């Protein structure tokens, strides 16, 4: 079994005295993609904020390679933990190239290597043609792809004795169909290098196609986890998503395909 890069143990989160997450046990192994799904307000984005340490826990532990998250200094963590939030506000007229370069800031790999990685990340996210353009002049979808390139540049290369973890909160929000699939296809080469990917997505068909495992959150609790075939059943979707569906195998990939009735 692959080593566990990220382990959540009985994680509990409270905000203003109100429980947001409770009793979350979850792991992401090396090279594994785990999808977080659930209705609005289920706690998916809150869970990512706990993993990054942005929100303090009321109870439980976030372990990275078996060590508590606090074991790693922030500048160390920034070299191997990449985070794409739901929205990234940037009002300064930076060029796209400069925005992607922010992902290399924690590293000390030299300008020549950094520029090569920036170019590779831009190409992976189909924003090479935007590099000299002002970020604020880009469309919403273009900005989303630029931010993804920034995060990929941050965790592009392996680091000795450190896991690499990628957290993506609705990474395809606002993207057209072609770029939605392109985003997830860019995860495969990183996974092949051992990067663990945890992503929030609302489209269950995208989760079925690109996740190794799916975790369903409901009212702050983890109600089920497993492979797409184990989790995405007609009964579970009706129960947890209030939607009647038919499940058929994808004609070429074999993964579950969800069709609303």
UniProtKB/TrEMBL annotation:
Protein name in UniProt: Heme ABC transporter ATP-binding protein
Native source organism of the sequence: Saccharospirillum mangrovi
Keywords per UniProt: ATP-binding, Nucleotide-binding, Translocase, Transport
The keyword Translocase belongs to this UniProt entry's keyword annotation: yes
Start and end residues of each ABC transporter domain: 6-244
Keyword Magnesium found: no
Gene Ontology molecular function, alphabetical: ATP binding
InterPro entries: AAA+_ATPase, ABC_transporter-like_ATP-bd, ABC_transporter-like_CS, P-loop_NTPase
Chain's role: Part of the ABC transporter complex HmuTUV involved in hemin import. Responsible for energy coupling to the transport system.
